[in-house]
Write a structure and sequence with these properties.
The complex is a heterodimer of chains A (about 270) and B (about 525).
Chain A (H helix, E strand, L loop, with lengths): L1 H28 L15 H14 L1 H6 L1 H21 L14 H4 L2 H27 L1 H6 L2 H22 L7 H12 L10 H16 L7 H7 L1 H4 L15 H6 L4 H6 L7
Helix pairs in contact in A: 1-10, 4-6, 6-8, 8-10
Chain B lengths: L32 H6 L5 E2 L10 E2 L4 H15 L1 H9 L11 H6 L6 H16 L1 H5 L1 H4 L6 H10 L8 H5 L6 H13 L6 H12 L8 H19 L14 E4 L10 H14 L4 E2 L17 H18 L3 E4 L3 H15 L13 E2 H10 L15 E3 L3 H6 L8 H13 L30 H7 L1 H14 L3 E4 L2 H10 L10 E3 H8 L11
Parallel strand pairs in B: 3-4, 3-5, 5-6, 7-8, 8-9
Antiparallel strand pairs in B: 1-2
Helix pairs in contact in B: 2-3, 2-10, 5-10, 13-22, 14-15, 16-18, 18-22
The chains are: A mainly alpha (about 270), B mainly alpha (about 525).
Amino acid sequence: MSTLIAMLLVLATLFMLGGIARKVRQYHATPAPLKIPVTPAPKSTGGVVLRLAKEVVLFAALFRASKWTWLFGWLFHVSLAVAFIRHLRYIIDPDGPFGFMMPVIGLWIVQLAGQYAAFGMLIGLGGLLARRFLVARVRYISAPSDYLMLLLIMAIAFSGFLMSFVPGFSVDIVAVKVFMLGILTFNLQELPEGTALLAHLLLVALLGFILPISKLLHIPGVFYAPTRNQVDNPREKRHIVDWAKPLDEIREDYPELVASREPKKEA
Amino acid sequence: MADYDVPEVKEYAVVPLPKDGVMNHLSPFVAKPEFQEAMGYVGKKVHDDPKKMPEYVLIDGWKEKALDKMGDLLGRYRSLQVFMDSCVKCGACTDKCHYFLGTQDAKNMPVARQDLLRSVYRRYFTFAGKYFPKLVGAKDLTEDVVQDWYSYFHQCSECRRCAVFCPYGIDTAEVTMAAREILAHIGRGQKYANEIIGKVFTIGNNLGLPEKALANVLEGLEEDVEYDIEVEVKFPLDEKGKDILLVTPSADFFAEPHIDGLIGYAKVFHQTNTSWTLSSIASEAGNFGLFIGSYENMQRISMRIREAALQLGVKRIVYGECGHAWRVGYSFLNTLAGPFDFLDQNYPIPQHICEFTLDKLEKGELTIDKSRNDDKTVTFHDSCNVARGSGMGTEPGGQFTIPRAVIKAVCNNYVDMEKDTIHDVTFCCGGGGGLLTDDLMELRVKGILPRATALINAKEEHGVTHMAAICAICKSQFTKVLPYYGFAMDQIVSVHQLVSDAIVLEGQVDPED
């Protein structure tokens, strides 16, 4: 059983990282032939970094769009980030290269916040799910996968909540860490018992498989939107992509331009 | 005449409940195959019988060709590829589109409009859509889908308001442009946009005004202005060796209130002793290549401006009042037709007429009598392509402050409309993006609703009498459609019409009222 779970986690991780890398490479390789930042836009690279940071960290555009969606969406994502940081302790070897992070991750406040983040995630996701049902406009645009994705992450958060807060489901977290580090060092160890733990890991693996083939691609996508990541300097700087260069070669020769160069006949 | 109702204006903008397909009866006329072919597209006629209505069908093998084109565009435009993947269906955009607010049609919600294309992208280009289509909302490409594309991608004015609010920066305009490009490659070009582009290539401007007619119009204008104020204000055409080439939308040459704006530019040039000329080759600032998402056509149209600048030997290029022209001019001209190393590098290339005029106002080179506009209380409509697709001056947001500064310098009474309807969240006039055509009148009447609501509120709360704009499409749409909401055509003004009314030229003799 331990071996099976370990293999599944490894596969899911590789699939997720490989899938995202493939997508990032595709986004990177696809040219953006025209300057299309939504203006007003920053005039410098530093400004663009700030603009993207405001979107990624604060969800600035969403805040302008819909306060409720922002509230639930932001709460969920921040809680997810806090929970993620807490989980790093399971894969960081205190004596390994990332060991220097342990004093921070191991702080009781970080660990406690990571546990309570389950509530933030559940409230956030619950709000987003309710919105999908209750707001007619959002209901109209929702596909089954949109509901299932929320339920999947809610199930992950809920299984985590059970382990942290409900005594019957608690697990030997020291053993979990031994198991995880075992995977990373190719020295497989026994996974401790626990229904919630098993569900938690299986669902996380499933999420890993879904991520790069779903709308969760908004994770790399948010950085690659030309509408937000371009500097507003088109009058100052010419911007031409490879596929447009052949058009540059022939652009003087359009028939109407050639005709305009003929001396005019006097009427 | 109309078999639809003009929407009721409420005190506040109301977000309606979505109704599926209430606008699916509306599509623009299809472009004739001849026009399609002249632009490098395709078309197919059912019959050649002149007595019957023409019918144009999709070309043979349309499905493969459409998917090939989609793949081609996904590989050439990062925006399209990223936007197809990123959407999480959060709903932030669902209440932001003026066409949704005005028509209630669910498919006019930006995300739903994008999904018409995205569902096909998922079906043919993604793992999840190939193997679990129902789960992820992927759809087969059928003729019904193509019909929905043709209908709803011509109910988007590419105004980018939705993109302001999208957490991932997804711009429906990019999706609409891609969809129109795909449609044009399978025999579904839009008559209005494509025939206009044809006129630019064969005649020189969107309105099909030939060189001689243009010369006559300008001569007539000189006479009119001289008759009015007894000053010889010139409107030069194709004069070599001048400093400035002015490119302006061809509507400026004969439609009201556009032409009053043109008179305004000429007066500003006159009083500042600026040497300038218009060009018969570049007698059109507008560039409908943008609307159909065609880089190739947009470049070919832009090249006319480079050609005119070279042939006339000017030092600078200035753009007249035109929204999408300014987007292409500001954001793309350098890329499409640059580098402009033969022009004077001390000025922005190109420069907007508002940038030019404000500079002259600030230097005190214009004699202005603001009281001449005291009969008006003016507000300003931010045109979508200027507001969200371009800039002015050196600071972000100059496109909002500079035109307002020009207006305030020539008018004593100015007020803004409600703040969620101006600046970067301005509402489209309802006729942009290649939709300013009579076959889409119902859409135009309904799509103007949010702007009309804000204007009516400004009128009631602040006594606004006139709305100024710096876009030929906005001005045309407003003068035609705002009368449905109780406004008179002459309540829409050009910004440079206000300048023209307030400027006092040397030796000017005012007509007696």
